[in-house]
Amino acid sequence: VCQDAGDIKFTVNQGSYTSDDGNSGTDNYGIPNTPLRGTLTMTKQGNGAPLSGVTFELQRKGDGDAWDTIAEGLVTGQSYAMNDGNTGLEGEPTAGSAGVISVSNLMWGTYRFVETKSVPGYVGKTNGEQIKSGEITINRDNVSGAVNAGTVVNDPTSLEINKRNDVGEVLAGAEFEVKPADGSASHFADPDNLVEGSYDAATNIITLTTDSTGCATLTGQLVVGGTYTIYESKAPTDYDPADGTLTITVADDGSIELVGNMPERYEIQGVDGTNYDGLEPGAIIVTNLHEAIE
């Protein structure tokens, strides 16, 4: 039961409302209804830091399990706005926070970001699948502020070389030259900021030296799709270097794949049944033989 609380005063302004009662005299009069739109953000990290320059597309969930791409070419570190129909982007992007994508003017619905291109030195897929954010829904409960789709992490590419002798003892002090394969367009991601090894810009070679555990690693320098050669340029004292040059390529998920034939005394964990305890798939094992005593 409604009680009389006195007169309620309100003003009806001219707007875009059109009646459906057939009375043209009421056209363009009424209370305009402005739709509420949401903003979606996502953070990209790599090696513990914000990662700008990674490309994504934005997908909206349709009927059933179908996903429709509504925006492409979204780059971390940039802010975007959808058009009113949410059929594409409106205007030009603006600079945003490092590693963050922001998309505004989104209709209510369920969304996710899907990575389409990583940056050099980082993997582009995980377990053979494109890297995705979590699913996030924009509705009346959260439309007033930016909704965060979470943090998506890319792992850096990694090369591991293990050095041992013919009885399985680890060897320190072996030096390996890693370089882009001749005739390829491969390169290193950021050799001027190398963490492991040393870089010679004149020859475009990174030299790695095995440590006391017999291991040498190269993190975040090999580029997905790149082809590289590995050559032992210096053996430990009293040992002969392994002959031949190993050629590898880096798959989308960062895994190391053999190109051509396997040189003598080289092995790759997981290839041709190679299985050493404690080594990850793709680790390279190089065996040295003692120098012949004359």
Would you kindly provide a written description of the structure presented here, covering whatever features stand out?
The protein is mainly β and 294 residues long. The protein has no helices and 23 strands. Strands 1, 2, 5, 6, 7 and 12 form a six-stranded mixed β-sheet that branches. Strands 15-16-14-18-20-21 form a six-stranded antiparallel β-sheet, with no helix packed on it. A hairpin with a 2-residue loop joins strand 9 and strand 10. It is elongated. The protein starts with 37 loop residues before the first strand and ends with a strand. The relative contact order is 0.13.
Rg for CA atoms: 29 Å
Helix content: under 10%
Overall 3D shape:
elongated
Low-confidence blocks of residues: none
| Relative strand content | 35-45%
Mean pLDDT: 88
Please tally the helical runs, counting DSSP H or I stretches of 4 or more residues.
Answer: 0
Q: What distance separates the N and C termini?
A: 112 Å
Described by strand count, sense and barrel closure, the largest sheet is: 6 strands, mixed
Name the helix and strand elements from N-terminus to C-terminus, one letter apiece: EEEEEEEEEEEEEEEEEEEEEEE
Derived from helix and strand composition plus strand pairing, the structural class reads: mainly beta
Number of strands: 23
